[in-house]
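step 4 of 6: structure.
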Amino acid sequence: MAIIVAIITQDDVRKAINLLRDGYDVDVFHHIFGEEASKSKWLLSIAMRGSEGLLGLFVTFLLIMQSDNVLDLLLNFSAMEFVSLIDDVTFSLTCEGFFGSMLKREGAALSVTKYRVAHQSDTWKSTLSTASYFVVLFTVMITGWAIIFAKQSSGKYLCEQLFLQLLISPFSRANVWDVLY
Amino acid sequence: MTMQRGAAKSTEASGDANSDGEARGRTITLDYASADAPNNRSADDSSQDSKDEYYDAPDDAQPQAAVAGLPDADYYDDTKDDVFAPLNDNPHPSFHSSREAAIDLSTERSLSKDTFSFIIFSNPFSKCYLLAALVFTLQSFIFILVCADVIDLDNKGNPFNLPPNVTVPVRITEGKFTLPSVCII
């Protein structure tokens, strides 16, 4: 359940894939966003968005699998979701003027700027790319969960060595052992 | 328009019921094509759809509308072609227009509303660009810190410190029954 929610709510990777799917059109980007909207910056944005999203998913998965009670699991999961949302919250704060009027203007301009792409988003290729993102991530995470589940069931994570230190307490009665560890 | 139609219908119904005692206590079917209709519609006109029956309301309905504070009856003249002409030409105009609008919007994009879009939108090393880089660094730093805390490379057998086993509620919360649920969906 948490795995599905983590994939669905992880929007940074999805946005990166959508941006990659729409492609970079030099004429459109230069006409709409200006000459500074170069392809290298477009690629950098996708790389940053994707890496941050995938790193967040990995950490979320680790925390989900490490938790041994439901409350810890949900709390850890929520904390990682909050960290993933910092970029969206910061943008909202920028648009509300928390970081100065210049950044507010930039944020407002970005919000209202629209551009057109050559292909429609409801074609089968677009649907396939979006669906494959969910399928691949879901498959990877469920496979990881299944491997961990199998190892836990077979006792692979049980302690292989147990160290005991036995001492005779001077204050105890005879033949009574205190187990310290 | 609906109010006026309703008023005309009820007026006529009450008039029929009062004038004809036999009509009381049984279902009254309104027919403005009958002889008491003011414009003397022909019997062929009565074969039109049912809403046309209300368009030719008798004149005595108009003063009541005026008394009720409604605009003049000409305001509600539904017999004019311009009112129903679009409906007659296209039975589902809004359906087709929204489809066309959706197709039109499917090629329209905007940059997502997060700081990573500043990387594309702003000049390099401007305030917006640096803010985006700062947010990315902050997020990555938090995730790396959590990773460093969670992963124990010295523990060869279990570097991720996974528990030996968990209870069934935890297993369900993690993802048990997820695969069947997705297959069903």
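step 5 of 6: annotate
 - Residues 2-84+119-179 of chain A form one domain.
 - Chain A has one domain: 2-84+119-179.
step 6 of 6: archive
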